[in-house]
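[Meeting: bench + compute handoff]

Bench side (C.D.) handed over the final construct sequence. Compute side (W.E.) agreed to return the predicted structure before the next meeting so the bench team could plan truncations. Sequence as handed over:
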Amino acid sequence: MGMTDVRRPSAPETGAVPVSALFQARYPELVRLADLLGADDPEDIAQEAFARLIRRQRALRDTGAALAYVRSTVCNLVRNRRRHLRVVRLRTPAGHDEDSCEQAVMLREDHRELLAALAALPPRRREAIVLRYWLGLSEREMAAVMGVSAGTVKSLVSRGLDALGQALEGKV
């Protein structure tokens, strides 16, 4: 035997969330969510969200809550990363930001203006717009992911759409 075959059991333990199935089904969606929220490394954010799910899977009462948990974790990780980067930028001289080749390839030409307007929104409004119109979450689901009331979600979406409309006015 030249190599040792190390595998995890394929069936989840009783009460455990089927993380591998969730990862296979939703990882690209969560990478894109992190990217749309402005993460500098969306793949790392999505992977960290799943790593945290693995550590907390036994604590989840409902296996159906796993998707909401990783979505919420992605939002929180992006927020925390942005706060961290803001502090770092305050302590370092201004630099020149350039998009990576991967980001440039991902952006289709016809979406650049919309993505630029979306990026210019305040982070919470951007989150609300992305969760509503990209993921198609209901107000109740958005409120749970963002940790706010349904009324706040409505306000964030409304103000975000108004700001997007103003930013894109005359550019169409």
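W.E. noted at the follow-up: The first helix runs from residue 19 to 36. C.D. will use this when planning the next construct.
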